[in-house]
From TrEMBL:
ATP binds at G8, I9, S10, G11, S12, G13, K14, S15. Residues 1-158 form the RapZ-like N-terminal domain. This is RNase adapter RapZ. GTP binds at D56, A57, R58, S59. PANTHER family: RNASE ADAPTER PROTEIN RAPZ. It comes from Massilia jejuensis. The gene is rapZ. Residues 168-285 form the RapZ C-terminal domain. Keywords: ATP-binding, GTP-binding, Nucleotide-binding.
């Protein structure tokens, strides 16, 4: 059975991801206690080939068993992938404020906690991060801090299509002024390359447009940096495959996320697409 396990921080988009997978034909279950996952798999194995399950931090007692459960299901022959959605605390606070919903952990009490006291949203988020820290590395981490719902839906659709590949290389451009993506395994800073932004004719364009590409192709530093990044990834990629990693995310950043980082991510994706399963993202572009 193909199983996608969705977990992560409340407010980071787990419901959006689950809805996308449901539309893709997955049998979906939300808020399942992790201890019940093996029974669920057994009960639906004869009726569906694709299962998506969302779990959260409210099942604190059984979360510790999740790594063992994941390993057991894989050993039984199930193709299981874990997606861990996260976001910056600032983004989470803004989302809860916009929706006016309370955090799930605000309704639970810690041992010995006074029922009359109520934790703040920041405290709930911090506690949830602590509870989920042990399972964050089970799968692919997706940072949704600056991602719109539509962009997240597109990312999940990509993942649903590539989830069975041995390893998928994600190249993503980003803007340092916005912040480094939380889901990055490697981060490369290309701000040392001459900036097309200062050419007024190139400023409104992006790293996907021919004039910007020609400008950067003519820069020896851009060519040299591209070569160095390619050789670095090529050197260490076999180690990640040996470690049975499903995803490796390489983030490339410049100041505004429009020219140099986009150009470099496009070049890297084209280079590795000849030999690897590649997905390309531009975080600052719709």
């Amino acid at each position: 059975m193909h199983i996608v396990l969705i977990t992560g921080i409340s407010g980071s988009g787990k419901s959006v991801a689950l809805n996308v997978l449901e539309d893709a034909g997955y049998y979906c279950v939300d808020n399942l206690p992790p201890a019940l996952l093996p029974q669920l798999v057994d009960s639906v194995s004869g009726t569906t080939a694709k299962l998506a399950v969302a779990v959260d931090a409210r099942s604190a007692e059984s979360l510790a068993e999740l790594p063992v459960t994941v390993r057991t299901l894989k050993e039984e022959g199930h193709q299981l992938k874990v997606l861990f959605l996260t976001s910056s605390t600032h983004s989470l606070v803004a989302r809860f404020s916009e929706t006016r919903r309370s955090h799930p952990l605000s309704h639970t009490l810690l041992p010995g906690e006074n029922p009359a006291s109520r934790r703040t949203l920041i405290e709930c988020i911090a506690e949830e991060r602590e509870r989920l820290a042990a399972i964050e590395q089970l799968g692919h981490v997706i940072d949704t801090s600056e991602a719109s719902a539509n962009k997240l839906r597109a990312w999940i659709k990509e993942l649903a299509e590539v989830q069975h590949a041995p390893l998928t290389l994600f190249f993503e451009s980003f803007a340092f002024k916005v912040g480094v993506p939380l889901d990055a395994d490697f981060v490369f800073d290309v701000r040392a390359i001459p900036n097309p932004y200062y050419d007024l004719s190139l400023r409104p364009l992006t790293g996907k447009d021919a004039p910007v590409i020609a400008f950067l192709d003519a820069q020896p530093s851009a060519t040299e940096m591209l070569h160095d990044i390619c050789k670095f990834v090529e050197k260490w990629l076999p180690s990640f495959k040996t470690d049975n990693r499903s995803y490796l995310t390489v983030a490339v950043g410049c100041t505004g996320g429009q020219h140099r980082s986009v150009y470099m991510a496009e070049r890297l994706a084209a280079y590795f697409n000849e030999t690897e399963r590649v997905v390309l993202r531009h975080r600052e572009q719709s």
